[in-house]
UniProtKB/TrEMBL annotation:
SCP2 domain segment(s): 318-407
Residue ranges of the region described as Disordered: 281-305
Family statement: Belongs to the short-chain dehydrogenases/reductases (SDR) family.
SUPFAM superfamilies named among the record's database cross-references: NAD(P)-binding Rossmann-fold domains (SSF51735), SCP-like (SSF55718)
Name listed for the protein in its UniProt record: Hydroxysteroid dehydrogenase-like protein 2
GO cellular component terms listed in the entry, alphabetical order: mitochondrion; peroxisome
Keywords assigned by UniProt, alphabetized: Mitochondrion, NADP, Oxidoreductase, Peroxisome
Location within or outside the cell: Mitochondrion; Peroxisome
Keyword Ligase appears in the UniProt entry: no
Molecular function as annotated in GO: oxidoreductase activity
Gene name of this polypeptide: Hsdl2
InterPro entries registered for this protein in UniProt: HSDL2, NAD(P)-bd_dom_sf, SCP2_sterol-bd_dom, SCP2_sterol-bd_dom_sf, SDR_fam
Superkingdom of origin: Eukaryota
């Protein structure tokens, strides 16, 4: 049977930070359909010039969906506002069953470009806000029949690639994940504490701001996180200490059609931050008795060919290649593993991986991910790919030819 059929959250009280829009609101509306009580703990009380929604418009939508709403002005940087909202929630609804730590601040900037006030904002909202809201709700959660804390934060992946371009943001999001790690163990048997993170980019106002126009085609709707959150929050409290990826969980729950979640079905999706291919297989956690248990997903999947190719390229980097090439290559790949990847053969010891290159690319190559793998394993000559229209090249053609030379040397390793 579908995981979404019964009114499992009827009468439950959810305290959701940042619920006036985006992912927080989507989780609220999903629970509201069951007849849940929602405390909208967010800071937008007056309409914002560029962002949609206030705590009051969200409250109206929640009531219309069948839930009860309590809008509370809460900036999670202000401890007293958190305490007041929690007290009001308990007075209004008699307790708190679920806390969703969704409020987050983001600035994808390097260390020297990140102003101190931005560092403070991310640490205050993401780490301290999550910690204090959890601390304030926990005494009430412990009295609930099936209490849950759910943080919207990633599996902790210590690959330096996720730190180098936005160190402060990464530290702050992993701070939220560390709250899961610590509190799940501290309150084991009493309160479930888990993390949820999307496999692909999700279309929100924040994403529009970061990605600019047209980005939504590469995103999924917030519904996928709402459905995944619902699955987690309706599990028993013994389900704890897990770092869950939305798509992995929903596949396990029997969901087969993921096109319903796409903004533009069939369009390549942009993978989310902090996930390299190994993170999408299973993750090990200690069980209560110290036994190893697999808590994230089914059997480990082999790593994807594109990611594997970049891993080999990264491993083959040498000062020699960098010195002789002096170029930055960006790959816009379509198909199965669509997205932006790069090879930087200009900066220091060189680097390669997922996302935009650290500096502006000299050459942008567009092709399908299948042809990309063929090209890097010597099964398709770049010149031929270019002439047959399989490969489009923008930028410095001389550098493109240099890359071809490097490929012939690399083929033995691939």
């Amino acid at each position: 049977s579908s995981p979404f059929t019964f009114r499992k959250l009827a009468g439950c009280t959810l305290f959701i930070t940042g619920a006036s829009r985006g992912i927080g609101k989507a989780i609220a509306l999903k629970a509201a359909k069951d007849g849940a009580n929602i405390v909208i703990a967010a800071k937008t009380a007056e309409p914002h010039p560029t962002l949609p929604g206030t705590i009051y418009t969200a409250a109206a939508e929640i009531e219309a969906a069948g839930g009860k709403a309590l809008p509370c002005i809460v900036n999670v940087r202000e401890e007293q506002q958190i305490i007041n909202a929690v007290e009001k929630a308990v007075k209004t609804f008699g307790g708190i069953d679920i806390l969703v730590n969704n409020a987050s601040a983001i600035s994808l900037t390097g260390t020297l470009e990140t102003e101190t006030k931005k560092v403070n904002l991310m640490m205050d909202v993401n780490v301290r806000g999550t910690y204090l809201t959890s601390k304030t709700c926990l005494p009430h959660l412990r009295k609930s029949r099936n209490p849950h804390i759910l943080n919207l934060s990633p599996p902790m992946n210590l690959n330096p690639m996720w730190f180098k371009n936005h160190c402060a943001y990464t530290i702050s999001k992993y701070g939220m994940s560390m709250c899961v790690l610590g509190m799940a163990e501290e309150f084991r048997g009493e309160v479930a504490v888990n993390a949820l993170w999307p496999k692909t980019a999700i279309h929100t106002a924040a994403m529009d701001m970061l990605g600019g126009s047209g980005i939504e085609k590469q995103c999924r709707k917030t519904d996928i996180l709402a459905d995944a959150a619902y699955c987690i929050l309706t599990k028993p409290k013994s389900f704890t200490g897990n770092f869950i990826i939305d798509e992995v969980l929903l596949r396990e729950e029997g969901v087969k059609d993921f096109d319903v979640y796409a903004i533009a079905p069939g369009h390549p999706l942009m993978p989310d931050f902090f996930l390299d291919e190994k993170k999408l297989s299973g993750s090990q956690h200690e069980g209560p008795d110290g036994a190893k248990v697999n808590t994230e997903s089914g059997p480990a999947k082999p790593s994807s060919p594109v990611a594997e190719t970049f891993r080999v390229i990264q491993g083959a980097m040498s000062e020699e290649y960098v010195r002789t090439t002096q170029g930055v290559f960006q790959f816009e790949l379509s198909g199965e593993e669509g997205g932006t990847w790069y090879i930087d053969l200009k900066t220091k010891g060189g680097s390669a991986g997922f996302g935009k290159p650290p500096v502006t690319a000299d050459v942008v190559m567009s092709m399908s991910s299948a042809d990309f793998v063929k090209m890097f394993t010597g099964k398709l000559k770049p010149t031929l790919a270019f002439m047959s229209g399989k490969l489009k090249i923008k930028g410095n053609m001389t550098l493109a030819i240099k890359l071809e030379k490097m490929l012939t040397q690399l083929n033995s390793k691939l």
